[in-house]
Amino acid sequence: MENRFGTISIFIKPDKCPITKLNDLLSKYSDIILGRMGIPNPEQNINVICLVIYGDTDQLGSLTGKLGLLNGIQVKSYLYKPE
Fold this sequence. Notes:
The protein is of the alpha+beta class and 83 residues long. The chain has one domain: ACT-like. Chain A, domain 2 (Alpha-Beta Plaits, 2-Layer Sandwich), CATH 3.30.70. Helices cover 27% and strands 42% of the residues. The protein contains 2 helices and 4 strands, in the order βαββαβ. It has helices at 19-28, 57-68; strands at 4-12, 33-41, 46-55, 73-79. The longest helix is centred in the C-terminal third of the chain and has 12 residues, at 57-68. The two termini are 17 Å apart.
């Protein structure tokens, strides 16, 4: 399977999310994560983590699927499709 670039946006309700589990999961997939940016917004009780990844569709699906099982998290992903 061919590797491609992509992004994953993780929207977190910090009062409902097990942050330690989230960070452990991201550490397990660190081999496909090229960059990570976190943006806290305590006034609206939401944090956002944006990941830039380089991997195949199986890796992306595995990571996003496991993230989606965590409480207090919504996940959106995009894979870049070269022309």
